[in-house]
Amino acid sequence: MRHKVLTESVESLAGLDSLQTLFDRDTQVFRMPSERVLAEIVDLMRDVMFPYHYGETPVYGDTLKYYIGVRVDRLARLLNEQVTIALQYECNKCPNAHQQAGEVTQQFVARLPELRRVLTTDVVAAYEGDPAAKNHGEIISCYPVIKALTNYRMAHELLLLGVPLIPRMLTEMAHSETGIDIHPGAQIGESFTIDHGTGVVIGETCVIGRHVKLYQGVTLGARSFPLDENGNPIKGIPRHPILEDDVIIYSNATILGRITIGRGAQVGGNIWVTHDVPAGCRVVQSKAKQETTK
Questions:
Q1: Could you tell me the pTM of the whole model?
Q2: Spatial distance between the Cα atoms of 139 and 127, rounded to a whole number of angstroms
Q3: pLDDT tens string 1-46
Q4: In angstroms, rounded to a whole number, what is the distance separating the alpha carbons of residues 110 and 235?
Q5: DSSP secondary structure of 50-82
């Protein structure tokens, strides 16, 4: 009896009819990038970006080149494999997936020095913005924003290189780890930081300038957006806020729609903002209106 139930259940679960709803298109590829392998890629990425702060092997000046070389080589091999899988899944029959993945991987590796430079500005911004921080090492090792930004900046570069699936997987992995939800499509300038971080949401079409600081619980989201003739949401249109340079958004503020928070503006905590805020102004909760700081 048990054998019969097991057999019938397996046969039902293996029937493709029950899976059709889960596929967006006809596909011959029933494989997606591995979250386990991507987790190793993230570990390697963090180790390469901050070799004295991650990993289990002591790093010395005379072995640093070898240390980084081994990890970049491993990262490139794993990334090439996962990008190939993602491309094959996305385009179904994609005969040039492996070659395309190789080109993408080379371009990504070439961008690693610039990614290190930008992430360094994020570390400095977090350190300078938090009087409780004792040193840069504490920021790198303990602060969730650096982990989230490492994943995001890696994912954003891969998205720009045309890689499907993987960028979103990387940022959702960081979301699960840190509570910070950044869409890989968002454009975020250097020297960016998030204090504490839990509950922050940054939408796909956000544009964030340089030296911007957010606090926990901030949402940079979208309002309702237009539907097509079939009643489905129109995808890809700009629908999230623009934050210019030197903006500060305090905890639990909600900024919605394609509005602009001008340079040097401040938005106080627990405020709902759906209109532009001029440069140099602040939105204060107690008065619920804009006040100039000049």
A1: 0.89
A2: 6
A3: 678 888 888 888 877 777 777 766 555 556 889 999 999 999 999 9
A4: 31
A5: STTTSSSS---GGGHHHHHHHHHHHHHHHHHHH
